[in-house]
Amino acid sequence: MNQVAVTNSDISMTPAVQSALAVTLRGVDELLPQGEWAKKLARSEATGTPLRIKLGLDPTAPDIHLGHTVVLSKLRQLQDLGHTVIFLIGDFTTLIGDPSGRDSTRPPLTAAQIQANAETYYTQAAKVLDPAKTEVRYNSEWCDALGSRGMIELAAKYTVARMMERNDFHTRFTEGNSISLHEFLYPLLQGYDSVALKADLELGGTDQKFNLMMGRHLQQEYGQEPQCVLTMPLLVGLDGVQKMSKSKNNYVGITDEANTMFAKILSISDDLMWDWYTLLSFQSLQDIAALKAEIAAGRNPKDAKVLLAKEITTRFHSAAAADAAEQDFINRSKGGIPENIPEITLSGAPLGIGALLKQANLAPSTSEANRLIDGGGVRIDGSVVSDKGLKLEAGSFVLQVGKRKFARVVLG
């Protein structure tokens, strides 16, 4: 992670500027150019003018997980320094589809899908950002206004040769995979967003570096002071190996129920926990370092993990929900049954255990239910089920699948 010291003699490195730079650098992958950002911070302090910090998100899906909030958490840290965050919804650029990291052309979404996703995105992002210090914009404001003439003039400000230096385009070309002409417009339009917004800093994941640097280039082409670029590392998921992803089922969704969110966070490894603290926690680096020292001195690492789980669960739910989730986790770890579990009434007794699990929404299919039974993951009233041929008579009982799925079933 980029932690290079700034030594430019023409920068007024007051304690406030040094502190702001340290906050900026926390957990980052790269800050480019770091010296320019220090100058912007110093000028902001001297003039009392907040800097304009941009994050663009294409609403390609309605829900976000903790991995998406790494950049949002960095924005919140910069908001707390007094700067203005621009939450840019790429409703126009989503019509193209970001080619970053893609080996094929991304299928376009409809305008209705984009609008529905955008509304959900900001509602969720506002759980991290301070809405009072957030400027919400849509890039259709200026992209629609460009028109054909403006689009041609914009396209003239970058060469095909430079565009083909981009790794994903270069790889697709050499492997004989198609590249649609409209995909070349995506980085140009993302860069033009920075021109329209007069951004001082743009944030993104490590896979967005080409697009972010395009913003610097186009701002210079249009006679503006170029923005700085900050990339954040990708959050490793619950498996401790791959980046957090819904498709890999190693994610914590920010709309997960409080009990589920808390338990998932408690499941991460002790080593991964410290990366999550750096990238997701709002605690200061000094407080995190002190906590890490306590763990190194013999305090139980689970204590630190519980604190992190409660902080994150509180952020997306409430302090009361986080406390209840902690108690629920304690009950489950002792083999107890959570207080609030779904109650389901079913008919058809006697009913086979596989069909029962499916009808109770504890397994997607009878075959999957049988697989869970083979793995010892199914319990009835606390007792492990080993017989896939078991038929249950009429009555009331608690079904449990794994550590987190429960249902109180009344079978008639």
UniProtKB/TrEMBL annotation:
A biological process from GO: tyrosyl-tRNA aminoacylation
Tell me which PROSITE patterns the record gives. AA_TRNA_LIGASE_I, S4
Q: How does it assemble?
A: Homodimer.
Q: Which SUPFAM superfamilies match?
A: Alpha-L RNA-binding motif (SSF55174), Nucleotidylyl transferase (SSF52374)
Look up the domain of life of the source: Bacteria
Location(s), subcellular:
Cytoplasm
The entry's ATP-binding residues are 246
All copies of the RNA-binding S4 domain together span: 351-412
Give the location of motif 'KMSKS' region in residue numbers. 243-247
The record ties this protein, via SMART domains, to: S4 (SM00363)
**Is-annotated flag, keyword DNA-binding?**
no
Q: What is its biological role?
A: Catalyzes the attachment of tyrosine to tRNA(Tyr) in a two-step reaction: tyrosine is first activated by ATP to form Tyr-AMP and then transferred to the acceptor end of tRNA(Tyr).
Would you tell me the protein name for this molecule? Tyrosine--tRNA ligase
Span(s) of short sequence motif 'HIGH' region? 59-68
Record field: catalytic activity: tRNA(Tyr) + L-tyrosine + ATP = L-tyrosyl-tRNA(Tyr) + AMP + diphosphate + H(+)
* Record-listed E.C. numbers: 6.1.1.1
A single GO cellular-component term on record: cytosol
> Would I find Cytoplasm among this entry's keywords?
yes
Family membership noted in the UniProt record: Belongs to the class-I aminoacyl-tRNA synthetase family. TyrS type 2 subfamily.
Annotated GO MF terms = ATP binding; RNA binding; tyrosine-tRNA ligase activity
The UniProt keywords, alphabetically, are: Aminoacyl-tRNA synthetase, ATP-binding, Cytoplasm, Ligase, Nucleotide-binding, Protein biosynthesis, RNA-binding
